Each structure stands twice: as structure tokens, then as C-alpha cells.
């Protein structure tokens, strides 16, 4: 087939896959409207962070501050012990990230490659825990950690992550199932143990799903307010999301300072998502879960 005819055939196939022009315009319009609905609250938060208290009252739904109050950021961070709370947030986020990646990868490898009796029903039991809402398990967990004298510490937030996450175990299992099983067979013939096979062969090949898991876990625990509100009772171990609640009082809320501080606390998640976006999509799509 000539090159021009082949190019026209490829272009025709592409147009057929994209659908009629009217459908594409409608889909694009809906996507733009949906994106505007999602991004508007974030833009309003930025605009409010730069307003004066009087500007908030008169600004309404406008996204353009009349007076630019840049000092809101410094005043917001000076209004509470930012650095100790940042340290607590980093501890209660980074340690669970490492723990969840390590344990979920190891368990996912075992479910994917080790043929053991009962592994199928056991994996179904693990997946079924996804159906349990967090509010159902929080009471027995609270009693357990109270008996262990761990209330008002970061341990109740960190310790459960050492046992992995059902969702991430599922992602790692699906990822390993799509890797060639011949890797396992060759390593077994060479006398490698299961742990050595996982650590030396499968783990180095897991970079996309490791990055996706780490970013999703980071975003989940960086914004973790529920567990912090349950287990932390004093200022010593407060985290940043819990500290934001201190801006609200019965005598009124300083909205510009609240929005400025919330913007600073949100920035790590936003930057991390845009930096690792390609790896998140690539890692999850490779598992076949997209």
C-alpha cells in the first residue's frame, strides 16, 4: 500500500475511533464544565487567602481580591506552632508510606506467585475488608490502643499501616500477575528463596506501582483528620489537619488566615500529584485496574 494511502487509512481509523464531531464537542464541553466545578473552590481558596477580612465579606464568589494581603501567609503560620505540627504530620505520613509500600508489596507478591492451599479464599477475605467503613473498626481499634497505652501518641495512626492495605495489596497482586512467571521459575531453579525472588527481582521491577502507592498513601495520610481527631488529645502530637480546626471558634473564624494556612498545607499534595501524575496513571493502568 502506498505511503499516502496508508496515512489516510490510519487517519480515517483514528477519526472513526474518536467518533462524530458533535459528540466530541459535547464531551469536551462537559469536561470543561466539570473541571471548572472542581477547580473553582481551589481558586476561591487562593483568592480568599489574599483578602482582608473586610474583603472576604464584600468579595462573595469573586475570584479576584481587591486588596492583596500577602501577610496572611506569615500571620497564619505564626498563629499556631507550625513547625512541631509539621514534624508530627511528616512522621505520621512518611512512616506509613514506607510501611504500606513494603508490606503491601510483599503480601501482593505472595498472593500472585506462591501457590498455597487456601490462598484464594484468603485473598477474598482480604478484599472483603474494603467493604468495611472506617467507622465500624474505629471503636475496637480505640479500645485496643487504649489497653496498649498508646492514646495521645502517633502509634495508633502508624502501627496499622505495617500490616498493609487491602486496596494496595490488590494493586500489587495485579501488577505482579502481569509480569512473566518465567522470572519466578528461573529463580527457583537457581535455588533462590521466595523472599529473595521478591526483593531482588520483583521489587526492582515495581517502580511504577511503588510510586503510585506511595503518592496515594501520602495524600491520604497527609490529610488524615479523622484518626488524628480520635487518638490525639493534647497539643504535643497534633498534626497540621487537626491544627486547622483551631482556626474555628464560637467567636468567629479568621477566614483569610484559615485559607492561607490551608493553602500552604495543601501545596505538598498538589505538587506531588502533578510531579508523579504520569507514574500514578502508568502504574495503576498496568495492573489492569484502570
Automatic annotation (TrEMBL):
It comes from the Bacteria. InterPro entries: MetI-like (IPR000515), MetI-like_sf (IPR035906). It is a multi-pass membrane protein. It comes from Nonomuraea rubra. Residues 86-276 form the ABC transmembrane type-1 domain. Its main location: membrane. This is ABC-type glycerol-3-phosphate transport system permease component. GO terms for cellular component: plasma membrane. It is found in: Cell membrane. PANTHER family: ABC TRANSPORTER PERMEASE PROTEIN MG189-RELATED, ABC TRANSPORTER PERMEASE PROTEIN MG189-RELATED-RELATED. Gene3D superfamilies: MetI-like. Belongs to the binding-protein-dependent transport system permease family. The keyword Iron-sulfur does not apply. The lineage of its organism: Bacteria, Bacillati, Actinomycetota, Actinomycetes, Streptosporangiales.
Amino acid at each position: 500500500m502506498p505511503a499516502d494511502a496508508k496515512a489516510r487509512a490510519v487517519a480515517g481509523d483514528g477519526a472513526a475511533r474518536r467518533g462524530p464531531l458533535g459528540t466530541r464537542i459535547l464531551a469536551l464541553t462537559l469536561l470543561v464544565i466539570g473541571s471548572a466545578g472542581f477547580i473553582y473552590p481551589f481558586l476561591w481558596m487562593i483568592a480568599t487567602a489574599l483578602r482582608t477580612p473586610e474583603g472576604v465579606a464584600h468579595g462573595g464568589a469573586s475570584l479576584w481580591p481587591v486588596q492583596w494581603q500577602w501577610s496572611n501567609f506569615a500571620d497564619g503560620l505564626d498563629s499556631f506552632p507550625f513547625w512541631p505540627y509539621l514534624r508530627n504530620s511528616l512522621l505520621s505520613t512518611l512512616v506509613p508510606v514506607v510501611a504500606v509500600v513494603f508490606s503491601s508489596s510483599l503480601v501482593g507478591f505472595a498472593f500472585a506467585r506462591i501457590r498455597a492451599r487456601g490462598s484464594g479464599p484468603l485473598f477474598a477475605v482480604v478484599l472483603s475488608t474494603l467493604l468495611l467503613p472506617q467507622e465500624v473498626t474505629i471503636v475496637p481499634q480505640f479500645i485496643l490502643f487504649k489497653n496498649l497505652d498508646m492514646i495521645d501518641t502517633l502509634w495508633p495512626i502508624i502501627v496499622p499501616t505495617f500490616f498493609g492495605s487491602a486496596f494496595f495489596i490488590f494493586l500489587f497482586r495485579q501488577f505482579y500477575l502481569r509480569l512473566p512467571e518465567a522470572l519466578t521459575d528461573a529463580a527457583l531453579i537457581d535455588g533462590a528463596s521466595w523472599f529473595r525472588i521478591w526483593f531482588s527481582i520483583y521489587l526492582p521491577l515495581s517502580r511504577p506501582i511503588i510510586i503510585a502507592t506511595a503518592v496515594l498513601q501520602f495524600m491520604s495520610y497527609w490529610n488524615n483528620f479523622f484518626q488524628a481527631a480520635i487518638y490525639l488529645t493534647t497539643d504535643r502530637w497534633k498534626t497540621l489537619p487537626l491544627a486547622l480546626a483551631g482556626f474555628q471558634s464560637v467567636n468567629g473564624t479568621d477566614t483569610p488566615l484559615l485559607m492561607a494556612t490551608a493553602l500552604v498545607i495543601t501545596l505538598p499534595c498538589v505538587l506531588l500529584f502533578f510531579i508523579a501524575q504520569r507514574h500514578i496513571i502508568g502504574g495503576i493502568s498496568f495492573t489492569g485496574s484502570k
